[in-house]
Amino acid sequence: MTYLVAVICVIGIAVGQILFKLSAASLKQTGSFFDPKTLVMLFTAFALYGLTTVAWVWVLQKIDLGRVYPLMAMAFVLVPIGSHLFLGERFQPQYFVGVALIVIGIIVAVRA
Question: pTM (2 decimals)?
Answer without folding.
Answer: 0.86
